[in-house]
Amino acid sequence: QLACPLDLGCHSVALLSRPRKMLVSSIDIFSEEAEKLYLEDPTNTRYVMKFRHREGKLVFKITNDKVCIKYKTDQVSDLKKLEKLNNMMFKVMTGKRAEPPMEVEASSPAASSTAASSAPAKKKAKK
Q1: In what order do the strands lie in the sheet with 57-63?
Q2: 40-77 exposure pattern, b = at least 16 Cβ within 10 A, e = fewer
Q3: Pairing relation of β-strands 67-73 and 20-24?
Q4: Closest CA to 56 of 69, 78, 72, 80
């Protein structure tokens, strides 16, 4: 059993452990805060997107059990920004980063032979 560090009693400890909730009114602010929250603690951060049919609203939520940030919208104009945010979060969460393509030096014989061997074979034309 854990003792309350502030001697406030068991009920107070439960209240102190609840996440701090924030409802954000701007998609730009939500995007920035969501990325910051995820980068602070990637292993404990969860990102949820759901559509509430009865209300006709799309709800985005990100939490790390200390802070909970929500964004609700029913505007079609926000969809492009939300799709961009969703793709960014998926890339960050899967660990995939945009990397520049590798350059192959044409002067080295090893590079030219591997490039030639990796090219697909051409089919012969039928007579």
Answers
A1: 20-24, 67-73, 57-63, 46-52
A2: eeeeebebeeeeeeeeeebebbbbbeebbbebebeeee
A3: parallel
A4: 72
| Nearest alpha-carbon partner for 57 in 42, 71, 43 | 71
Q: Which of 49, 43, 17, 47 is nearest to 33 (CA)?
A: 47
Q: Is 65 left (phi over 0), alpha (psi -120 to 50) or beta?
A: left
pLDDT per position as a tens digit, 53-105:
999 999 999 998 889 999 999 888 888 888 888 888 888 888 865 454 455 55
3-state helix, strand, coil in the chain (%, to 5): 40, 20, 40
Chain centroid offset of residue 99 CA = 18
